[in-house]
Specification:
Helices cover 36% and strands 19% of the residues. With 494 residues, the protein is of the alpha/beta class. Bound molecules: 6-O-phosphono-beta-D-glucopyranose (BG6).
Length: 494
């Protein structure tokens, strides 16, 4: 495995702890080796030391008394080499190639190479081209070459199409693993199991019984130290065409013919392709943006977005985005999907709420029952992972009254809690060549196609009311209007 961006945050915080976890589960190949490539001059020992500190932090985060398993760490680091190199320097790729051949010889590694691009997105195309030029990307003699590409994959539709074109000149689609880390979350993967491995849901999972769907990805964190990145990105680009659309696709897709990667990805692409592309004049009643001002989170006062480091004092960048999606297909006709995501909101919460239609229960009108009681099926993606079903039940007593009750399943109660970064499954899948949880070129482009009119409209019509929500609240009031115009309201985030 060659990690480009060996000294970066992603490598330290997620990739290496995930490799360590795979090592603990005995899921790394015996002849596994890692070469970390980065610009800084450092020794392999210095690199190991940095990585150990972060892995130790990761282990202690779930249990302060736990320690890194020394024998797993040793067997991992025994095969980890640091390689100083400039990503744009062709000569260094030749040196890298020689280094890989040397390691292959020394350690008897199999000759399969996994290139992990944990680097700034502007280098994705260049690195793939350079790998191609020095023949490191060509699969020969039964040896595979796979490339993992992180997000953001493009900044808009045209840049995503251009990047796909550029890398597909060098690699086959089957060699490319575009990561969306949401797909590494167990609860996201479970959406398909929940829907397709249980017979009772499919008959009601459609326009006949579902009134609408709400998907919420709210965060309490602000932009932290990522002001520079976020100023170019904003909430819509950062979260919607990738993470949120993965949740939409998993909820809306048809049952695939099998769990084969292409069968699943084809159904997901079809779901996103069915989302109606809005025209410029529809954007104001289809999409809402917001930016947080100062406020209070968990009892602490926090700064507004414009006061965060590396953010312009008059910034127009959105930290909240909501959209109403119309899925123009047979299953979902007339069932809107409302999605929202934001930073510095009341609570950290990712959930999918399915609101079922009401009964035509005219008989209840003559009672004191507080009718209708909404039926909600809620898939809690994180935290407090679980699934609940909310329904009405008769309250005990002589008077006919209805109460809202809840059946609740918590993952932890059944399956315990194992410390995981979410990258374990994804890295393992790349190694075994299973691309089910990775984005195909058409999946990525379909997502950008839907948000492009909103990006265009927002860039032409700058917001006049930013900041329009206080940190520690549920987002801007206009987001409520998006549902109110349809006679609906958001579920409370708290
Ligand atoms: C990242 C975004 O892709 O996902 C971040 O760039 C966001 O802005 C993060 O905070 C959310 O992921 P998670 O796993 O913490 O919910």
């Amino acid at each position: 495995m060659v990690i480009f961006g060996a000294g970066g945050d992603l490598t330290k915080r997620l990739v290496v702890p995930a490799l360590y976890n795979l090592g603990c589960s005995g899921l790394l190949p015996r002849d596994f080796a890692i070469v970390g490539v980065d610009l800084a001059q450092k020794t392999t020992e210095e690199w190991h030391k940095d990585l150990f500190a972060m892995t130790d932090q990761f282990v202690k985060a779930s249990d302060p008394n736990a320690n890194v398993n020394q024998s797993v760490w040793k067997s991992l680091t025994d095969g980890m080499y640091y390689f100083q190199g400039d990503l744009t320097d062709s000569a260094r790729y030749e040196n890298l190639k020689a280094k890989l051949a040397e390691i292959d010889k020394q350690r008897g590694t199999g000759g399969n190479y996994l290139f992990y691009l944990a680097i700034a997105d502007r280098f994705f195309g260049t690195v793939v081209e350079k790998l191609g030029q020095c023949c490191l990307a060509s699969q020969r003699d039964g040896h595979w070459r796979r490339v993992v590409i992180e997000k953001p994959f493009g900044h808009d539709l045209s840049s995503a199409v251009a990047l796909n074109r550029q890398i597909l000149k060098v690699l086959g689609e089957d060699q490319i693993y575009r990561i969306d880390h949401f797909l590494g979350k167990e609860t996201v993967q479970n959406i398909m199991m929940f829907r397709f491995a249980n017979g009772i849901y499919e008959p009601i999972w459609n326009r006949d019984r579902v009134d609408h769907v709400q998907i919420t990805v709210s965060e309490t964190v602000g932009v932290e130290k990522r002001g520079r990145f976020y100023e170019k990105t904003g909430a819509l680009r950062d979260m919607i065409p990738n993470h949120v659309f993965q949740l939409v696709a998993m909820t809306a897709m048809e049952a695939p013919n099998s769990f084969h990667a292409d069968a699943v990805r084809t159904e997901k692409a079809k779901a996103i392709e069915a989302i109606r592309i809005c025209g410029a004049s529809d954007v104001p009643c289809t999409a809402v943006r917001g930016q947080y001002g100062p406020g209070t989170i968990d009892g602490y006062e926090v700064a507004g977005y414009r006061d965060e480091p590396d953010v312009a004092p008059e910034s127009d960048v959105e930290t909240y985005a909501a959209m109403k999606l119309i899925i123009d297909n047979w299953r979902w006709s007339g069932v809107p999907f409302y999605i929202r995501t934001g930073k510095r909101m009341t609570k950290r919460k990712t959930s999918i709420g399915i609101r079922f239609k009401e009964t035509p229960a005219a008989l209840l009108r003559s009672t004191q029952a507080d009718w209708p009681v909404p039926n909600w099926l809620v898939l809690r993606i994180q935290p407090e992972e679980g699934i609940s079903f909310e329904f009405g039940a008769k309250m005990p007593g002589p008077v006919m009254k209805l109460g809202q009750v809840k059946m609740d399943f918590k993952y932890e109660d059944y399956f315990g809690k194992a410390p995981a970064t979410g990258y374990e499954t994804l890295i393992y899948d790349v190694m075994i060549g299973d691309a089910t949880l990775f984005q195909r070129a058409d999946n990525i482009e379909a997502g950008w196609r839907v948000v492009q009119p909103v990006l265009d409209y927002w860039s032409l019509h700058l917001p006049k009311d930013f900041p329009n929500y206080a940190a520690g609240t549920d987002g801007p009031p206009a987001a409520g209007e998006l549902l109110r115009q349809d006679g609906r309201s958001w579920r409370a985030i708290t």
